[in-house]
Design brief:
By secondary structure, the protein is of the alpha+beta class. It is built from six helices and 13 strands. Strand 7 (127-131) and strand 8 form a beta hairpin. It is globular and about 50 Å long.
């Protein structure tokens, strides 16, 4: 278990310092390790139309996009910063993997941002907090997460999902550009409302996140006889004879025997 405490709600878990949970749904896709450029790793769909970039030392840790062709510009882009739990990103990459496998190119449906994208949040009790001529804002019941919708619904930040107190080391943000398919935003929003906790190391959790979250110890499972039995079964057989560590002589018991000479 990669952690000693469970964090609830999961959107206050912060980064796990690695992107395993975000890449797990697309682990079977081609991986490209880059020496130059902002992204150290880029995972692409087999046809290279979906790109998932990981920048291990940048503020925008994740950059995810989709294009109608491998060499064409992206139709939409999503970014997640360095404080975003990888489990939330994993909800988006999992939906992308399903869309690509389905073969219907749903990940390219660039309809205008609709309320369908907010449905999981509204069902979980998120309420409209404020609105003005620029944006509409929604808040989670605990006030520690929210959604901001650009009224123009255009540009690179048409919708932002955030969590945690404001600050460089605490505020998580996932931003979607205009024309991101609604069902992809909804899949990510649903991960925010998932009641299942995520594991983190207590010493690595920012104190301000820990103060707003509910933490419970991770109790390692106790091995059962069934868990131990396979280990016993795979022990190597005991040698027929031993060779002293200081000797280079092979015991005669281990030498191959010669067949008796044929009588003439």
């Amino acid at each position: 278990m990669d952690g000693d405490v469970y964090v609830t709600p999961r959107y206050l878990a912060g980064s796990s310092s690695h992107g395993d949970a975000g890449f797990a749904p697309v682990a079977h896709w081609p991986h490209h390790h880059l020496d130059d450029g902002p992204h150290q790793l880029v995972v692409t769909s087999p046809d290279h139309r979906i790109r998932i970039g990981w920048a291990g030392d940048d503020y925008d840790l994740w950059t995810i996009s989709a294009a109608p062709d491998a060499v064409l510009a992206a139709k939409w882009t999503a970014t997640a910063n360095q404080n975003t739990p990888a489990e939330l990103v994993g909800a988006l990459t999992a939906q992308l993997a399903r869309d690509w496998a389905d073969g219907q190119d749903q990940f390219l449906e660039t309809s205008a941002l609709g309320w369908a994208a907010l449905a999981p949040l509204l069902e979980a009790g998120w309420k409209r907090h404020s609105f003005d001529h620029k944006s509409v804002r929604y808040l989670a019941p605990d006030g520690l997460a929210g959604a901001v919708i650009d009224v123009s619904r255009d540009g690179d930040d048409a919708m932002t999902l955030w969590a945690g107190p404001a600050g460089w080391g605490t505020r998580a943000e996932i931003t979607f550009s205009a024309h991101t398919p609604n069902h992809l935003i909804a899949a990510t929003a649903r991960a925010f409302t998932d009641p299942a906790p995520v594991a983190r190391w207590r010493q690595n959790l920012h104190p301000r996140l820990a103060a707003g979250a509910h933490l419970t110890p991770v109790v390692p499972p106790v091995p059962t006889p069934r868990d131990v039995r396979p280990r016993i079964a795979t022990r190597p057989p005991a040698p027929m004879a031993s060779v002293p560590r200081w000797s280079t002589t092979t015991p005669s018991a281990l030498l191959p025997t010669r067949p008796p000479a044929a009588r003439r």
